[in-house]
Amino acid sequence: MSAESIDIIFNPWLRTLLGLCLIGAVFGGAMLVVWFERKLSGDIQFRLGPKYVGPFGIFQLVADAIKLMTKEDLIPSKADKLLFVSAPIALMGSVFMMLVAIPFGAIVVNGVEYPIVATEMDISLLYIEAVSSISIIGAFMYAYSSNNKYSLLGAFRNFARMIGYEVPLGITMVSIAIMVGSLNIVEIAQAQSPIWFVFLQPLGFLVFFVALMADMGRLPFDQNESEEELVAGWITEYSGMRFGLGFFAEYIHLILGSMLVVLLFLGGWNLPAFLTDITILGIFLPTLYFLLKVALVILGIIMLRWAVPRFRIDQVVDLSWKRLLPLSLLNLGWAIILGIYLGV
Prior knowledge:
Blueprint (H helix, E strand, L loop, with lengths): L2 H7 L2 H34 L2 H5 L5 H13 L10 H21 L4 E4 L2 E4 L8 H9 L1 H13 L2 H32 L4 H6 L6 H4 L1 H15 L10 H4 L9 H26 L7 H4 L2 H27 L7 H29 L3
Antiparallel strand pairs: 1-2
């Protein structure tokens, strides 16, 4: 395949088609992650369903999907119906807008690299950070419209958590941008050949990973749901597919967050040139290599759920403002020094 052919493939109209395919791929990936987490949790907790329903428990996922799609769609009598119906749209809208700017790998032909991304923009890092914040509004719409005090309490916890962790998360991302001299996430991934940024900014990686875990609301930071205290929190009053969309959005955020970890710190899709110079390998290998690293990050995040005790809200806030924020500022200073040394 020549470079000219690749240019034709990536024209604006076909980029739209590519974007739709990526959306389908992410939904499929989210279903796979749901199955894997349920299977792993079933093995750890000796739950019968995810362990024995079909080969490898795969039919448990099908049963759950049928249950969500056929369950009665309830709306509380005193709920704000417009917000109640709009909340899943806002939450999924945040996910779709993030998808636009995140590359899913690359194709290398004749030594030229073509990132697989719906839209490559110069400020993609800021764009991703901005549109991911819309999910906070979506969660608040879920809670406020439900007319349920436990849901609203979950939403306010979500605000406290997100405000606390967005700051160190944003500072760490800016530290990477300063060192590279670009806010383009594709250029940041390409700049990690041959040295991954986790080796140049190990402190930044630690801060980013912990803040990302909190940003995604994963255990041990599940303050907005916290079934033990808030009766499922912000999503208590939802049923059927409206609940399913909120549940699904969390898993898609998990996939996209894991991609950011790989793109910013773990080398992206970069491989030695002697591998990608072979045309057939250059077309498939970088993307497979990238997706393998993403899968390993997802596995690590799922395993952490069963290895770390759940934090209280006061512990979550303390960790953010008293530990992660000073460490992120320290890492920012280190990134500036590195940037000057590297001549950026």
